[in-house]
Amino acid sequence: MNRTYRKGAIGALTDEYEKALNELKDLLLQIPDAEFQKVYNEKTGLDFQSIRNIVLHMINSGYAYANYIRKRFGDNYVVPKIEIEKTEQGIFELGKMFEYTVETFEDKWHLKYRELMNTIIKTSWTTYDLEAIIEHAIVHILRHRLQIEKMIATYGII
């Protein structure tokens, strides 16, 4: 397999983030629009009632993680208002969110491990070092991909 890997520790983490997103996108490609939008569990929080809402939650969270990093470094940031109705839109917006994240790292690939560990980022829910918030973003995708897989299995979606 010929592939180009990003440089440094942030590059490795970004490669893993991309891998997790690609696995999620492959799963989403199998989901028809009607199933993407359908509410399966009204007893859960709004973010988790449908696959569409779970994907929207992941997109918004991805922008939030990137924005926390941007704020920490004094970089400009945006908080986009995203709406999705179709599976393809969700996949597209996940891609845009990832590109925004990659842009967040453009001048940070060179950071050494010690700098990652000493770059403290305070969020609304906890405090991370730079490595940990990127790891959190990756695991967030993995966790919700598993949630979607369980919904597919439970409700026979595909």
Q: If you had to describe this structure to a student in words, what would you say it looks like?
A:
The chain is mainly α and 158 residues long. The chain has a single domain, classed as Up-down Bundle (Four Helix Bundle (Hemerythrin (Met), subunit A)). The protein has 6 helices and 2 strands; from the N terminus they run αααααββα. Strands 1-2 form a two-stranded antiparallel sheet. A hairpin with a 4-residue loop joins strand 1 and strand 2. Helix 3 runs parallel beside helix 4. The longest helix is centred in the C-terminal third of the chain and has 26 residues. The two termini are 30 Å apart.
From the structure above, extract its key features.
mainly alpha, 158 residues, Four Helix Bundle (Hemerythrin (Met), subunit A), two-stranded antiparallel sheet, 6 helices, single chain, globular
Number of strands: 2
Instruction: Note the total helix count.
Output: 6
Which strand order spans the largest sheet, edge to edge or round the barrel? 1-2
**What is the helix fraction of residues, given as a range?**
55-70%
- Count structural domains: 1
Could you list the spans in which at least 5 consecutive residues all have pLDDT below 50?
none
Largest sheet: 2 strands, antiparallel
CATH class: Mainly Alpha
- Looking at CATH, the homologous superfamily is dinb family like domain
- Structural class given helices, strands, pairing? mainly alpha
Mean pLDDT score, rounded?
A: 95
What CATH architecture label applies? Up-down Bundle
